């Protein structure tokens, strides 16, 4: 499995790299088809966040799956260990269940067609998947910078287009849980409409669908 480590505003120790090499082997035991793992270590500059001064994000590409987890601690090795534990648990829970999610529609959690509590969270949900997708090699869709206006104010908007295979609600839940996100943007296979799946209380979900009249 190919491993890539990115450090942002931080100098990584030799110990950290050794820990990564020694422990990432656990991933291939659960996912033998894992092709690559991307690890991003970021230093949090805010003094009030000293206890979470190191954030580690792990993204693993295995077959058609993209599995992601992150954690923060005051030490990079501790943050990595916590993120890896989350990743392993996520893989154990959801890998291998794709067929079950497709065929057992009755097992799908409650779908509530109501808006999420925070409208701004929809925008946040688009940002996280971008960070993951930006790491995919041979990306054919570079980021585009466009301008938006609100009254006299001009804002820069970074727009990126990704290829999306239509999927049903079962597959969307599966993909969202593997990524560990609270939102997932997808194209509904049945209607052909862009839709947003989001997490509600407990193990229930909501969905917003856009229809162009």
Q: How is this fold's topology laid out?
A:
Blueprint: E1 2-8, H1 14-23, H2 25-30, E2 34-43, E3 54-62, E4 65-73, H3 76-94, H4 98-103, E5 111-112, H5 120-133, E6 144-150, E7 153-159, H6 169-179, E8 183-187, E9 194-199, E10 205-209
Helix pairs in contact: 1-3
Describe this entry's structure for a reader.
The protein has 213 residues and is an alpha+beta fold. It has two domains: 2-95, Double Stranded RNA Binding Domain (2-Layer Sandwich); 112-209, SHC Adaptor Protein, CATH 3.30.505.50. It contains six helices and ten strands; from the N terminus they run E-H-H-E-E-E-H-H-E-H-E-E-H-E-E-E. The protein has helices spanning 14-23, 25-30, 76-94, 98-103, 120-133, 169-179; strands at residues 2-8, 34-43, 54-62, 65-73, 111-112, 144-150, 153-159, 183-187, 194-199, 205-209. Strands 1-2-3-4 form a four-stranded mixed β-sheet. A four-stranded mixed β-sheet has the order 5-10-9-8, sandwiched between helices. Helix 1 packs parallel to helix 3. The chain is globular. The N and C termini lie far apart (47 Å). 22% of the residues are buried.
């Amino acid at each position: 499995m190919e491993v890539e480590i990115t450090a942002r505003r931080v100098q990584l120790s030799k110990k950290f790299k050794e820990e990564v090499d020694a422990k990432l082997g656990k991933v291939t035991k659960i996912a033998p088809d894992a092709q690559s793992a991307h690890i991003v270590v970021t230093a949090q500059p805010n003094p009030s966040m000293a206890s979470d001064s190191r954030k580690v994000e792990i993204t693993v590409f295995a077959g058609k799956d993209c599995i992601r987890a992150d954690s923060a601690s005051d030490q990079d090795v501790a943050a990595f260990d916590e993120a890896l534990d989350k990743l392993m648990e996520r893989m154990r829970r959801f890998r291998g269940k794709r067929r079950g999610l497709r065929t057992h529609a009755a097992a799908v959690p409650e779908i509530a067609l109501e808006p999420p509590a925070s409208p701004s969270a929809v925008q946040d949900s688009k940002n996280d998947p971008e960070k993951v997708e930006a790491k995919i090699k041979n990306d054919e869709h570079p980021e585009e910078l466009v301008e938006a206006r609100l009254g006299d104010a001009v804002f820069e908007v970074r727009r990126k287009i990704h290829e999306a295979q239509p999927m049903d609600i079962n597959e969307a839940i599966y993909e969202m849980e593997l990524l560990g996100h609270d939102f997932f943007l997808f194209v509904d296979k049945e209607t052909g409409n862009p839709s947003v799946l989001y997490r509600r209380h407990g193990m229930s979900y909501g969905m917003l669908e856009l229809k162009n009249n």
